[in-house]
From TrEMBL:
Protein name as catalogued: PP2C family protein-serine/threonine phosphatase
Coiled-coil intervals: none
Entry keyword set: Hydrolase
Source organism of the structure: Streptomyces laculatispora
Origin: domain of life: Bacteria
EC code: 3.1.3.16
SUPFAM superfamilies: PP2C-like (SSF81606)
């Protein structure tokens, strides 16, 4: 009998491009599955696309209006019975540390009762969890899973930007994060990054300058400069200073980057923040939406030897923070009204019951309704952070 540790060992020993094939064989052998399918969420988070050897893959399904989409959205197993075929299909979320990758769909024969046994469903979810971890590792060595995420070809700039990102969602006991970029297949310079430490969460949100490859190269320089400074142990002001010098040294002030840099102290909820230009920050607290006013400082790379001074505020359990680029809050309706005037607050309130991982996609859909048929004038970035706080010991 294949116990979870045996499954994990089999996946680790498989070639990167074969890990799903190995898992499928294990499930077919142990549970006599009729079919086993892995669907990956596309870059726009609107489709679930089957993994297979291109171009011979199955048709994608909606990430919202489908049985697999229901498991993907709720992040819980969803079973569908087919009485005529005497089968049950279990759709299981494939996620790792809160990052939603896709769905594992397994069709099994069932007897007269027509229900899947609880132990079988638990086994399948353990397989899906093991697969999620191995997919993240395998993506370093194979393109199979990255190709399955594409509903269309990425521009080169978008390819560069997506490779920078840490994920699109993340969860720890103290917080949950979700983020999304649009247009997903042709983004330019907007970006986000985060890194978790035992007592700190570092987070950056950048609003890129320019278009195409130039914007992507600028953002790559900024993000990697900030990572280099953070990993060297510099404080938030030192991280901003080093990135500022790297960008100015390369472009002499002709190109620069607007960035928010934050450090959350997990035990206390104290937030250290540097507002180097934009994006903007909104807070939802006890049903009230408010913009967080910060002292603006110079964008990274605009001037030489800029000294950055952090500000402070505190988050409380239950707070929701929204980080939003100017492509969102400056978007105009057909009548010329900015999205940030009225529609943004309504959107923040209207998505308050959704988990953080689903908020960015929902807000960007509402932005399309506000903008109408007008084309997007800029990248659009939304990041949502739900603060839960750290429970006291004992």
């Amino acid at each position: 009998m294949d116990r979870p540790n045996a499954v994990e060992r089999a996946l680790r020993e498989a070639a990167p491009h074969e890990i799903f094939d190995v898992l499928r064989s294990l499930i077919e052998r142990r549970h006599h599955a009729r079919s086993v399918e892995l669907l990956m969420a596309d870059y726009a988070m609107t489709r679930l696309q089957p993994v297979g050897v291109l171009p011979h893959t199955g048709s994608p399904v909606s990430a919202y209006e489908s049985a697999p989409g229901r498991a993907f959205g709720a992040q819980e197993p969803h079973c569908v019975r087919d009485s005529s075929a005497s089968t049950v299909t279990a759709h299981l979320p494939v996620s790792v540390r809160g990052d939603r990758l896709g769905v594992l769909s397994v069709t099994l024969p069932v007897g007269e009762g027509g229900e899947m046994e609880a132990q079988v469903l638990e086994d399948l979810q353990e397989y899906a969890d093991a697969l999620a971890h191995e997919v993240v590792v395998a993506e370093r060595d194979t393109d199979v899973f990255l190709q399955a995420r594409r509903a269309e070809r990425l521009t080169l700039a978008a390819e560069m930007q997506w490779q920078l990102l840490p994920g699109r969602s993340c969860a720890r006991p103290e917080y949950s994060i979700g983020a999304q970029l649009e247009p997903a297949y042709a983004i330019f310079g907007d970006s986000f990054d985060w890194s978790s430490y035992p007592d700190d969460l570092y987070l950056t949100v950048s609003n890129g300058m320019g278009e195409g490859i130039d914007a992507a190269l600028l953002t790559n320089l900024a993000v990697n400069s900030l990572r280099n400074a953070r990993r060297a142990g510099l404080d938030l002001g030192g991280q901003a200073y080093l990135a500022d010098q790297a960008i100015h040294g390369q472009h002499r002030g002709e190109r620069y980057l607007s960035t928010l840099l934050l450090r959350f102290h997990l035990p206390t909820g104290d937030v250290e923040i540097i507002d180097a230009g934009s994006p903007r920050l909104w807070r939802l607290r006890r049903g009230a939406v408010e913009a967080i006013d910060l002292e603006p400082q110079m964008p990274l790379g605009m001037f030489e030897d800029t000294a950055y001074v952090p500000q402070h505020f505190e988050v409380e359990p239950g707070d929701r923070l929204l980080f939003i680029s100017d492509g969102v809050y400056d978007a105009l309706s057909p009548g010329g009204e900015k999205y940030s005037v009225h529609a943004l607050a309504r959107s923040i309130t209207g998505t308050s019951l959704l988990p953080a991982s689903q908020v960015p996609r929902a807000m960007l859909r509402e932005l399309l309704g506000h903008r109408g048929s007008s084309p997007a004038a800029d990248d659009c970035l939304v990041m949502c952070l739900d603060w839960h706080g750290r429970r006291a010991a004992g």
